[in-house]
Amino acid sequence: MLTVDSIAGCLTGIAALVVVIIATLGAQRVPAVVVAAPVAALLILLGLTDLSAAAAEVTTMAPTIGFLAAMLVVADVCAREGVFTWVGTVLAGWSRSSPRRLLRIVFVAAAVTTAILSLDTTIVLLTPVAVATARHIGARVTPIAFSSAHLANTASTLLPVSNLTNLLAFSATGLGFLGFTGVMLAPWVAAIVVEYLIFRWYFADELRASAPVETDAEPQPDAHRPTLLLVALALLLVAFVIAEPFGVPLAAVAGVGAVLFTLPALFRSPVATLRNTITAVNIPFLGFVATLGVVILPVRDGPLGDWIGGLIPSSSTLLGILLVAVLAAVLSNLVNNLPATLLLIPLVAHDPGLVLAMLLGVNIGPNLAYFGSLANLLWREIMHRDVAAPTSREYLRLGAITVPATLGVAVVALWGSLQLT
């Protein structure tokens, strides 16, 4: 029987992870869980992990997966009830046909959407709206589309609910909802400001020029502000803050919120609403997340995990935070940020500051390359449908400029925040 400490066992564990990661590239056609689940089962049969360890890992991740499912439903309700149609109207009106102004507004909209409803909502729902708005006012699409992609990653550091990586690592920080947000606020603002300044410089020519208005582009629809739904979102955030000190799990609050968000539509059209809700939950993706936690176990418990663990500093000094953030960013672009997060959490859990530094790396680092996060791959698919997606070289060129700068200022800001806590 193979063991995780043997050379054959180590190579097998790494190969299994690579196979699962490659499966994510075709996830739009075949759900990645179709590959990940058999691979996880095979690793158990080979003895590289055992059933009890796999069950414990899935049990640990269950609240996070439940929370994610609930927030997917909330985001779907927001889309169906016209929140993003209204956002498109606002973007077009406030831009006053100015590409620079539109870029600034999209930065704000993407940052807020990512922070509250997660980066996937920004990619799936805001990107098409932003691209359509750029076409509508005659602005170049590229800087606007890139802004939604980059902000989905960069702006996902603020709240525990902004990214699946945050949710997975939240308990390891030892912080409450407000505590997490308070420490990450300065890095969040610093990274976004620097990213915006780089975009203004990098896309200066495209932001000065106007694109030909597409005669066949659909006009921006007029939309009424969905006030009740916006208030409901605000109340859901308040509920997260209030419930957490009383020991009420975030997953429970999100679950109640998802039910309340769907009730009006459920009364109007029960069958259609149930169908839409089941689709929004995205069970294949949730299954992939759960099985990925099992697939990573042999790598994390083997020599490679030990070697990476040896690189982790003992405390959150400025140099220590920088080292962990850079290591997390590099791993994200090598194995994707979700496996990187699952690999690193136990290795940095001894110091909350290092956990937060790891999150900066796995959230901002994926802006370097398409493969850095599942959100990047999803953005590329959406761009292929709407316009020609930028090539990997174009994505890398912009990422090579933005990632070092935004990650650097975020690390310094995090270190400053930690000194004040």
UniProtKB/TrEMBL annotation:
Keyword annotations: Arsenical resistance, Cell membrane, Membrane, Transmembrane, Transmembrane helix, Transport
Record field: transmembrane: 6-25, 32-55, 67-94, 106-131, 177-203, 223-243, 279-299, 311-334, 354-378, 398-418
Short name of any one Pfam family annotated for the protein: CitMHS
Keyword Membrane set for record: yes
Residue intervals of the Citrate transporter-like domain: 25-350
Membrane topology field: Multi-pass membrane protein
Superkingdom of origin: Bacteria
Subcellular location: Cell membrane
Xref: PANTHER family: TRANSPORTER ARSB-RELATED
Similarity comment: family membership: Belongs to the CitM (TC 2.A.11) transporter family. Belongs to the ArsB family.
Protein's recorded name: ArsB/NhaD family transporter
Organismal lineage: Bacteria, Bacillati, Actinomycetota, Actinomycetes, Mycobacteriales
